[in-house]
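Dear support,

Our group has been running a series of protein-ligand predictions, and this particular one with tryptophan is the one our PI (initials K.S.) wants archived with full inputs and outputs. We had some confusion internally about which version of the output was final, so please treat the block below as the authoritative record. The input we submitted was:
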Amino acid sequence: MRVLSGIQPTGHVHLGNYLGAVRGWVEDQHHHDSFFTVVDLHAITIDQNPAELTKAVLELYATLLGSGLDPEVSTIFVQSQLDEHPALAWLLECTATYGELHRMTQFKDKGKGSESVRAGLFTYPVLMAADILLYQADRVPVGEDQKQHLELTRDLAMRFNHRFGRTFVVPEPAIPKVAARVMDLQAPERKMSKSQATPLGILYVTDKPEEIKKKISRAVTDTEARAVYDPEKRPGISNLLEIFSAVSGADPAELAERYNSYGTLKSDLTAALVAELEPVRLRTEEYLADRGELVRIMRKGAEKARIVAGETLTKAKEAMGFIVA
Ligand code: AMP
Ligand code: TRP
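Confirmed final output from the archive:
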């Protein structure tokens, strides 16, 4: 079975990205043929400062390696280093309809019908479909918010196969059950997110132990005497219990019973998070300290990816009737 997933280089990797995505990928790589990509071409659907884009890509790639993705085990690559992605996206765009792209809720949210919205933001889901179909991925681990894009990917793959002959594997989404939604530590009714971050509400995997301690100890809970796991009525404490559960493996309701003070729960959670994240932070810093080596690892990843992507692109072009040079 082949697994592929992608993450955008927009801001540091936060606890939601880590628990909801990256940590699962680290696990996946040992069980499946795995491809992971930094989708930098997706990042330019909104205005990007070039120097910041470079920095964000290096940082994200280093964080993925620091989190335990192993370039010897899986293929870890930067999307823009493979021209196969925009090339296949064009072929797919010419099979997708305006209507189906217009229904994508993420476009509606981000675009808000403004005239200055980039055309690339509109066609973004087709580029995502190309990312997936180029590698003939069977399974795509993504968060809830990406389900609609995966549906489109499946529709485009089936339509292409039907019209031009079997070319693409039709992928299945894989939505993680544990920590599918890590909430903001200050506003637990909304998702932890780079776009709406409050300074204390978002925990980065590269935060130092003192920062983790500060953010967890100031996390919003409630004024009840005891911890109870009830995401609806007690979102703050339940979010902490879910995070604790994700890093310890214990059930959130059981964890709630174990603690009669929020103070001890928070300090034990801090210790568990530091134990999980401190090695990630240190390894990430090591990778970032040697940019030449980091770029070499990236290039090797791109070379490995190109073997598969090139073959699929050729197959798709030939199926459509293009004369491949
Ligand atoms: P994004 O940062 O939105 O590009 O997301 C990258 C990956 O992290 C995707 O698989 C998301 O579904 C996942 N993710 C983002 N925010 C959260 C969150 N608060 N909780 C769980 N997973 C998340
Ligand atoms: N659209 C995804 C997001 O915003 C990122 C992404 C791009 C992706 N290409 C992908 C995810 C391919 C999985 C597979 O999170």
